[in-house]
Fold this protein.
Amino acid sequence: MQPKVVIFVDYSLLWLDWRKKSELPEYTKRIVGRPATRQGKAALRELLSGLKAMGSEPEECGKGETRPAIHLTEHPGSDEKATIRRCCDGLEILGSGRGLLYGAFHLLRRLALGDSFPEWESSPAYPIRMLDHWDNADGSIERGYAGHSFFFNGKPVCSERTRDYARLLASCGLNGCCINNVNVHGSALMLLTGGYQRELKRISSTLAEYGVSLWISVSFSSPIELGGLQTADPLDPAVQQWWKDTSARLFAEIPNLAGFLVKADSEGRPGPHTYGRTQAEGANMLAEAIEPFGGKLLWRCFVYNCTQDWRDTKTDRARAQCDHFAPLDGKFRENVYLQIKNGPVDFQIREPVSPLLGHLEHTNSMIEFQIAQEYTGQQRHVCYLVPMFKEILDFHLEHKPERDKVSENISAACAVSNTGDDFNWTGHDLAAANLFGFGLLSWDPTADPAEIAAEWSVLTFGDDPMVTETVTGILMRSRNVYEKYTVPLGIGWMCVPGNHYGPSPEGYEYDRWGTYHRATHKEIGVERGPGGTGFTEQYSTGLAAKYASIEDCPEELLLFFHRLPYDHPMKDGRTLLQRIYDDHFEGYEEAKGLSDAWDRLGGRLDPAVYDRVRDRFREQLRCAAEWRDVINTWLYRLTLIPDEKGRRIYP
Amino acid sequence: MQPKVVIFVDYSLLWLDWRKKSELPEYTKRIVGRPATRQGKAALRELLSGLKAMGSEPEECGKGETRPAIHLTEHPGSDEKATIRRCCDGLEILGSGRGLLYGAFHLLRRLALGDSFPEWESSPAYPIRMLDHWDNADGSIERGYAGHSFFFNGKPVCSERTRDYARLLASCGLNGCCINNVNVHGSALMLLTGGYQRELKRISSTLAEYGVSLWISVSFSSPIELGGLQTADPLDPAVQQWWKDTSARLFAEIPNLAGFLVKADSEGRPGPHTYGRTQAEGANMLAEAIEPFGGKLLWRCFVYNCTQDWRDTKTDRARAQCDHFAPLDGKFRENVYLQIKNGPVDFQIREPVSPLLGHLEHTNSMIEFQIAQEYTGQQRHVCYLVPMFKEILDFHLEHKPERDKVSENISAACAVSNTGDDFNWTGHDLAAANLFGFGLLSWDPTADPAEIAAEWSVLTFGDDPMVTETVTGILMRSRNVYEKYTVPLGIGWMCVPGNHYGPSPEGYEYDRWGTYHRATHKEIGVERGPGGTGFTEQYSTGLAAKYASIEDCPEELLLFFHRLPYDHPMKDGRTLLQRIYDDHFEGYEEAKGLSDAWDRLGGRLDPAVYDRVRDRFREQLRCAAEWRDVINTWLYRLTLIPDEKGRRIYP
């Protein structure tokens, strides 16, 4: 007999904490239909409990019911498609089990927003929409800003929270999660072969109930580490056999396992390059091993030289993804998905779109966002990233006359998760909007970030219009505010090395990570045009020309692409330096504005939530002042050029 | 019954690994005298085994022996004084048990050096000459560069190594060690009251055999942490009573316990300031508690604001020691020793002497050196610190017409230990010279660092003159070489934050530690003269004037005391900037010279030693090139002034 895990539930339900509604349509009093699948049953359960929380007490009625009702009609073959349509003064939800689940959550959300007859017919844009957890087996989370892992505690754990997590994911349209860190350390290695199958299976089964597939990160050198082989060479038959045998066992034990995620040849992780093999040879070997079980392989493209000599001005880390992977287009098996960070470097607050996204005509690609706010305020600063994701998804790669947008050129989407075992899941209460928004956007990339923000606010904080307007306003302004007081104009990496929080303008300058600005007292930045590292040439002709031209380059990316003197004239006539000074002074003031706006919500919110967010704003303002002063002082010391407006720069 | 601890001896004996001598004086064949004390017996044992190793087989003879012999004459009352004098064609060693021990080691050392009749009469300069270990209870060592602790492994451990460690200390004149980190964490707290008394007593007893006293670091807030009191206020009677009771128990259990070392109100450690009490009130309360047992209290003066705002240009960390402690002179009990770092900041490669050393006319002071090479190459770079210690001990404070030197104004000496459980004890084989040299110098501050180096080399590597000359040359040049390629002219702190290894010129610039250079593209440094922070005023009139004057200030300290433009003319006509460039190019070349010199010893040394040191030199050269290039590039980017000699500075 298995011991029962008892966990005290001590966490909020975020947007699933349905509130009492003053009126609900008549049809919410009855539900007709008894779904057969686990997901369909979950849909029914969600409707029953959700409507009850909103103030209705739905009755489960028989097929002959003629009064207005919610009819659940399960169609096994319709994959994830969900339909809600009018039906005899009520609504009918149609779909497979998963379709019913998405339909049920959609209906609940719309009812909570005051929409009485939300007709809807929708299929997700991508078959894989998932979160990547960087949870370690010991319970810590790499770049985790919301407590410890709820998936691991020395070993995998399944609890009531696992179920609620699955509910949260399904309710915003997500259908997968990879539960362990791509840097596979310690006992996480054992997920493949160790004694954890029982726990994994329980997690997997709990997730499956809500249509969420389980993925795990594996180490490319597992055949050595776990199998006792002398090599992990992908062309070695013993290695291939080891992966086949191990996968067969694992997929048999864990029915809801979707596949593996691999970080290979990246930041010290093992990979095929160790054996003189290509990324394609490495990925295909693994993909072949899991293919018989319907497994998919997510292969990260974050391959670059992380031991660069700062003296080397030829190597440009931004080029690495394309240099490694573009020539391999078409060389990957069908069940391989290349996982590509949204920008060419690493989740900075401003980067151009990764040019690799335009080079994979014959290969599945998956965009990787990061809602864990590693470089964007670490969930102590508010930074709503959904508008940024939207910009990227809407971006035209200019390779094709049609279907040219990023969103039309990818096959899957994932985000590095921002969750932990904190009461509010995401550390900063407002950071939950990134989780919700990423979910909605990965279902439908045409969704509007402002509408998502407003919807999230109503679901989370209730429908007080002042709250909705204020929260939406804070969220929508937050990314630009963060950008203004932190790293100027796309240059990136002026954060404290290691922890990546707070300013350190020269912190990475002489380090091995390929992230340099090479500022002198005259100039700053790395030239990435044809006269520099040539990175711009990785884009289509039009974009290449645009980025290479100092005049045409979008100003917010000017220092990503170019090395410029401080007196470079910006389009509005200010100097580059003055623009940076201005941004930093304004950025702080605008952050203050966000904080003040929040303060005005006192009395309108749960005091605990109000206070938690207010504390976070205090820290944000402290840190914003630090960014402002450090960046301004550093530039002032370099240039000795004062602020034109005479504002205070510390000498 | 106590379980017997079995440890495999897997370490070298450093300079105690006596070598076979081709000839030894006749008297070494016989030893007369049977000391009664444990230390006297240890002296006899060392002579028997040491002479045997050198090739003699001494016979223990009766009192009537007339042939040449070593006569051991124990005089209980003579404290640590040791005398060696001629006696009927042999030698007589006179002293208390400890005196005999120092005499025996002195004789063995001199015989090993080829001195057949080493007459000697010596008392140590200070009654307390000790090492401070920063060993943590979990076995790690804060700033440890030679493996793990041999004192702790989750709890205190006593092994054969403990005994050999005591032998090493006694053989170079040291008589105490504080075994645990001044930052008292985790189970180290329990040394006072926990279940560790048995282990502590074994360590203590083992050390006592070689005249080495045991000290422990304690947390000022132990009454709260261990005693369950609500306060650690030194004026609270319950707190006082707790310390009295605890001390009575501990001193009764551990006869060889000498006292406590306390880091209070420093870098987050608790202390009397928490309760609005002075440092004297805090120290005296503890001192009173241990006074009945002959206990002494070592109270660190490393008290400063470690949460400074970098924008604050008024606060000067260098002032903190004097500001806190000078006004308290005469307020401390007789068994309190103020432990004062050699410089006003923190063990940088070049600092002026701490001015506090000139302000304690009526208070015991103990100088604190650091042979753990935290800022001086971390035992991967060779950096023989004994010449620096000697400079400091010989420094005239200019407060008094006589007995004005630092060495004449202190009552005790300690050094932060550089040992760990590495085979060679100190990581870098050549770093053992710092341990040996600190011991000899703390016994006799008039000793000559070059002679110490030569002696250490012969004892360690044998008497091949080329080896001795080479090793002595490497050691004697090493400090200036390290200084040249690292931080210029006393400015300090351009190391990587946190680990303190390698260059990061702006790493501490916007941090909270009070360590700034505030370099602009015109000037660098903090002005500490009367027009600046006024730090120079903490010295006697003459020194204050000298340091305040840009002309009279020693050039090696120029950027410690002054803010200067890069084109400031140095005494030899070079600009300040060119001097820094030159130092860095030369420093690397000179490091290469040291390394080459070592390479020429191939075949003359134990190959394992030779290879170990060669590997360290490789790392030193890599790191020296990094320092050279980073500092030069950083200054070049700031100034855009090229090297006059056209050597390569990376842009």
